[in-house]
Predict the 3D structure of the following.
Amino acid sequence: MLFSQVAECFAEIEAEPSRIAMSSKIAGLLGKCSAEEARKLVYIIEGSIAPAYEGLEVGIGEKLAIKAIAQTTGYLEKDIEKEYKLVGDLGSVAEKLIAKKAQLSLSSSQNTLDKAYGAFVRIAKLGGAGSQQAKISLLAELLNGAQPAEAKYLVRFCLGKLRLGVGDPTIIDALSMMRHGDKRESEQLLRAFNLCSDLGEVAERYILGKNLSDFSARPFKPIRPALAERLSSAEEIIEKIGRCAAEAKYDGLRMQVHLEGKRVEIYSRKLEKMTHMFPEIVDAAKRLGANAAIFEGEALAYSQKEKRYLSFQETIQRKRKYGIEAMAKEFPLRLFAFDLMYKDGKDLTLEPYHKRRSMLEELVRGNGTIVASEQIIAESPQMLDQYFKRLVDAGLEGIIAKDLNQPYVAGARKFAWIKLKKSYGQMADTIDAVVVGYYLGKGARQEFEFGGLLACVKNAESGELETVAKIGSGFSEEEMRSFEDMLSKIKVSQKPAGVVSKLEPDFWVEPKYVVAVAADEITLSPMHTCGLSGGKGYALRFPRMVGMRHDKSPDDITTTAEIIRMFEIQKRRQETQAE
């Protein structure tokens, strides 16, 4: 397949507001691919060259891209930089200058999808002396063989700014469309993706005609984490799932540990590999009574001096690239394991929770560093409520109630798990939202080029990001300076694809950073688009930032459906108080 075909499709997708139409166009493009090409194409559409957990990034910055464009077109770097400041998109600058070059210069060999992907991989793996010039040369070679539209997407991809607005659900829908698949087939595609977090592999196997119904978990293919729904009381939880397991909700680092033989890997909630950061967990995993296992837990740092477990903000300091050994000695981790998804060749995700828990307890027994999370079996609302209150009084966030008979629901928010947390003001819980824009400082904040955030939740059905809060409080001066520096690096010239907003911030940014937000309550507002109906959406009243959630990605944020459910919980509480 020629890369010009890919670029043509990308241009159509970029101009298309309908997610269904996007899926249809992607399906058409995938239909022209071999299975091997489809795998590479899916990665590129995702804006990567490999599954996220492999951590491979192209690693070309704007300065290197400008040098490659200059080398290809003959324009001076200073003139390219000037044009970039005017246009705000280096891909569009490359498209424009390549078009001018095409009128005057020699043609070159055409780029294929395989050639472009191979160059991206080589660029990503380059390092050491001379690597920068080698990266420039590889990109310049692609640009030499590119049509103007190709140049636009080649440069954007290398900068990590493809900006198609296409999420994984859209690609899964596209794959299903290729065979006019029914709901069951779409569910098989989604389950396969949730079990391996590698949509390229799923696409390749699907196009080869392999049966995905028996797709299973495997070590070193991280499983997309299960998520909990929320209810407002112990009574509602027991009414919903009956007799249940209730676990302490720890506020730490969620880890997914994979073990096979002598190899151990640890993945974050965002499925980033972070094995080297936690040597004590690696050593403890090697002592477990299994040849192979995949299990999850929440890690908390412990202060030897103060004889106490540390908060999330303190624990997250253990997630670092340098000074690991010293920090491991000062703040050792204990991993509270709460689920087992695979053991010694058997996928356990479809087994009922009570069986998985029993096998987990057997696996970690006597380990010391890796222990089973605290748990009771709640027979009644009173028993569940007493346990909840005891944990909150002890300084924990609350509980997770688990249906004893449910499977592990990878990558989804179902009532297999239900969280009950302490209240923050009037609102029943904090929410996690992604930042899509920011405002300049005014008044007392004029010295900062930062005055607040525009934040969104995710509509799980449409895949779009919908605004729920304009956050103007909760920031320290240090945080304001940090946001100014952090967000200025990911500014974009127009509203990001997939964002639905009536508000216009001073600057739009790539949806990348997740923040925890508290508020007095959820209200209906004509200014926000979360769950928009009848001219009004849901919004947070007096929102304030609680902290950054570096452990979460935009895929993990609160959903529109959750906001609506929280609004209903709040309404019931207010009605009860009024009585």
